[in-house]
Specification:
Chain A: The chain crosses the membrane at residues 6-29, 36-58, 70-92, 99-117, 155-174, 204-223, 284-302. The structure holds two protein chains of two kinds. In chain A, helix 1 (3-33) crosses helix 10 and helix 10 (237-247) crosses helix 11. A two-stranded antiparallel sheet of chain A has the order 1-2. Chain A contains twelve helices and two strands, in the order ααααβαβααααααα. Chain A is globular. Chain A is an all-alpha fold. In chain B, a hairpin with a 3-residue loop joins strand 1 and strand 2 (167-168). The radius of gyration of chain B is 21 Å and the shape is globular. Chain B contains 15 helices and two strands. Chain B has helices at residues 2-30, 35-47, 50-75, 83-100, 105-134, 138-161, 180-185, 194-211, 213-223, 225-230, 235-261, 274-284, 289-313, 318-332, 334-349, and strands at 162-163, 167-168. By secondary structure, chain B is mainly α. A two-stranded antiparallel sheet of chain B has the order 1-2. Chain A binds chain B through residues 37, 39, 86, 90, 94-97, 99-101, 103-108, 110-112, 114-116, 118-119, 232, 235-236, 239-240, 242-243, 246, 282-284, 287-288, 291-292, 294-295, 298-300, 307, and chain B through 27, 31, 79, 81, 130, 133-134, 136-137, 139-141, 143-145, 147-148, 151-152, 154-155, 269-271, 276, 279-280, 283, 316, 318-322, 324-326, 328-329, 332-333, 335-336.
Chain lengths: 320, 350
């Protein structure tokens, strides 16, 4: 097996496993940049996966064909935002502990999704869908020697959308007045309030967007990787996205890079046994690598990661 | 005033539980199930006979310990989401001692439990050290440590302790907490002596927090780090210590599974969920030892009763997960209860 073959095996797989993480991590950036901790990403992603699986199934029944996954993405975003509104209500308006509210959200999403699956399908899982996102070569770009084969052939459209979204989110957060307001609310809400920015409103937007993106991440996972929803479809990807966001220093492009890197680790852990010099590395090191690296990053050993200043503190007008 | 505060302390969990069950009932009604039939079946599945009582108490033991772990850290102002991971390493350590050590029961059982506690303490101390030394938030590190524990324990079982059936060998009888006597009086449920360990742990937690200098310092750090520092308390030391002690409880919770319920450890595809339930238990129990025991009784009961609810009323067990989530939301939003109480009180006085 040549080096080129190895790369051709791993890199597309890495990009595939990274796409759901990228979407969810971007969601995390929105919420945490506005100052609201979102441990609930896991639950939001899980419910997005459930919504995606159910929507695709029914769209297929209606004969919508290859449009089904894309419709499901829209549905998962709406449902994700709705679910996140509970977290927003609890942690912004009712000033609940944001971490606890997020934990409760994870419980709620997991319970509700399986409850509904059993109710609707009388089984522990949704039917396997046939309309997945199809793999395709990108015209022209896939003809580029070397990189064309690695990055632009035999890949899912959703992966490129994910990368595109990361750039858009970066632009929105760092180059528009809206982004400045959102970030200011997470750094120093009182100063932002003094300047006439409505703190709760901005935070609501941040949390709802995180729900939409995490929901999308879950649906993309179903449409490209798992093909249906079971209780074990989403087990930790949401937390891994959270880790990617932190490892990416709460920055959209950082999160993108971290998610791609974690995707690479996952891809190697799955197909590493076929690769000559990687087969000796125990799989477990690759499995725990994302988490260990995140801890090291936070400890300042792999570049310093600083959270938004007001992260985790409810804003009370007039409190000093 | 004191009286009023106490009233709220009881009222918040009580109202939250009732609201959670109420909304759970509405969800069942909307989903075309009969909530009355379901709740009757749920209730019977908790205390409707010696077998159910035995199962509920068995379910309580790890929940009490997990709840104590979360509550203990909370008292020092730390949020230990890592109970799940500490529980897994504790489970593995207890099974390791149970399988590979030869000793009479009087030594073997305490040794296995001790091993679980030490493993949990070490696993819990890491986020504590990271917090004390590098100011890294413990919520994130403990979540990451959970996954590291999950994959590492699985790998250790695969490499060193594998028996047929994707699990370790069964522990030696001398390390087992199982009790033919308790099983017999509860109509052959899986009840074991773990509940005694859990209750002793609850007393120890109360004692450490409220009757020792260490406990005073830990609580002081929880109230106000800066003031504690100024008063000469070593804040860093207390943070590490608090996480380590919290980890001891969590590790011992793992030994409940390893020495009691299962007598071995499986290769886990996902988390047990006990650690996360511990958060719910601690929250509902307002981080007090007695509250944790009561909270564990409620949530343990709900989990066991759910099985009966599914078989009799046909309602999926996951409904109980939804109800528990709702209860946590309501307790977390106690702000609104306080606000309502204030409104009512003012209204009464004017």
């Amino acid at each position: 097996m040549s080096f080129m073959d190895i790369l051709a095996l791993i890199i597309p797989a890495a990009i595939v496993s990274a796409a759901p993480l990228i979407f969810t991590a971007l969601g995390g950036v929105f919420s945490e940049r506005s100052g609201v901790v979102n441990i609930g990403l896991e639950g939001l992603m899980l419910f997005g996966a459930f919504t995606g699986a159910v929507t695709i199934y029914y769209c297929e029944q209606l004969g919508l064909g290859s449009a089904s996954p894309w419709i499901s993405f829209a549905a998962a975003m709406v449902v994700g935002a709705l679910l996140a509104s509970i977290h927003a209500l609890a942690s912004i308006t009712l000033k609940a502990d944001q971490v606890i509210s997020g934990v409760a959200l994870n419980f709620l999403a997991a319970g509700l999704a399986i409850f509904l699956t059993k109710k609707i399908f009388h089984a522990g899982q949704t039917p396997v869908i046939s309309e997945r996102i199809s793999k395709s070569d990108i015209p022209y770009l896939s003809d580029i020697p070397f990189i064309g084969k690695l990055f632009f052939s035999n890949a899912y459209a959703t992966s490129y959308v994910a990368v595109l979204f990361a750039v858009i989110v970066w632009y929105v957060l760092y180059k528009t007045p809206f982004g400045l307001r959102l970030r200011s609310v997470g750094e120093h809400p009182m100063a932002a309030d003094t300047m006439g920015i409505k703190v709760p409103k901005m935070r609501y937007i941040g949390v709802l967007l995180s729900g939409a993106f995490a929901g999308l991440g879950g649906a993309v996972y179903v449409a490209s990787i798992s093909g249906n929803f079971t209780h074990s479809t989403i087990t930790g990807q949401g937390f891994m996205a959270l880790a990617a966001m932190i490892f990416g220093k709460w920055h959209p492009l950082g999160a993108l890079g971290a998610a791609l890197f974690f995707g690479l680790a996952q891809a190697i852990s799955i197909s590493g046994s076929h690769i000559p010099f990687l087969e000796d590395i125990p799989k477990v090191f690759l499995l725990i690598a994302p988490y260990v690296l995140t801890i090291l990053a936070l400890a300042g050993l792999v570049g310093r990661a600083d959270a938004p200043k007001a992260l985790g503190t409810p804003y009370e007008k007039g409190k000093r | 005033m004191q009286n009023n505060n106490n009233k709220i302390k009881f009222l918040v969990p009580l109202v939250s539980v009732l609201l959670g069950l109420l909304i759970g009932g509405i969800i069942m009604l909307v989903s075309d199930y009969d909530p009355f039939e379901a709740y009757v079946a749920l209730f019977q599945g908790i205390i409707g006979g010696p077998y159910f009582i035995g199962e509920t108490i068995r379910q309580m033991s790890p929940l009490i310990l997990a709840g104590l772990a979360v509550a203990f850290a909370f008292r020092t102002g730390l949020f230990n989401i890592g109970v799940e991971g500490q529980l897994l390493v504790g489970w593995l350590a207890s099974v390791y001692v149970g399988v590979f050590v030869d000793a009479p029961a009087i030594i073997h059982i305490p040794l296995a439990i001790l091993a679980a506690g030490v493993a949990g303490a070490l696993w819990g101390a890491i986020p504590g050290i990271l917090k004390a030394k590098f100011k890294v938030h413990e919520v994130i590190t403990t979540i990451m440590m959970n996954y590291i524990a999950l994959y590492s324990t699985n790998e250790i079982i695969r490499q060193f302790m594998l028996a047929p059936g994707e699990r370790t060998k069964t522990i030696k009888e001398t390390a087992s907490l199982s009790s033919p006597f308790l099983q017999k009086i509860t109509d052959y449920s899986t009840l074991h002596y773990g509940i005694i360990v859990a209750l002793i742990a609850a007393v120890i937690m109360w004692f450490i927090l409220w009757r020792t200098t260490l406990g005073f310092e830990l609580r002081a750090v929880g109230f106000n780090q800066h003031a504690s520092q100024y008063a000469g308390i070593n804040v860093s030391k207390n943070i590490v210590l608090s996480m380590a002690i919290s980890g001891v409880f969590a590790g011992i919770a793992g030994s409940m599974e390893g020495l009691g319920t299962y007598q071995y450890m499986t290769i886990n595809a996902a988390f047990t969920g006990v650690g996360f339930d511990g958060i719910a238990v601690a929250l509902l129990g307002a981080n007090s030892a007695i509250g944790v025991v009561l909270g564990a009784a409620l949530f343990g009961g709900l989990k066991i009763g759910a099985l009966n609810m599914q078989s009799i009323a046909g309602v999926p067990t996951e409904l109980v997960g939804v109800v528990i989530a709702l209860i946590i939301f309501f307790v977390a939003c106690s702000y609104i209860v306080h606000w309502l109480m204030n409104r009512v009180n003012k209204g009464g006085k004017i």
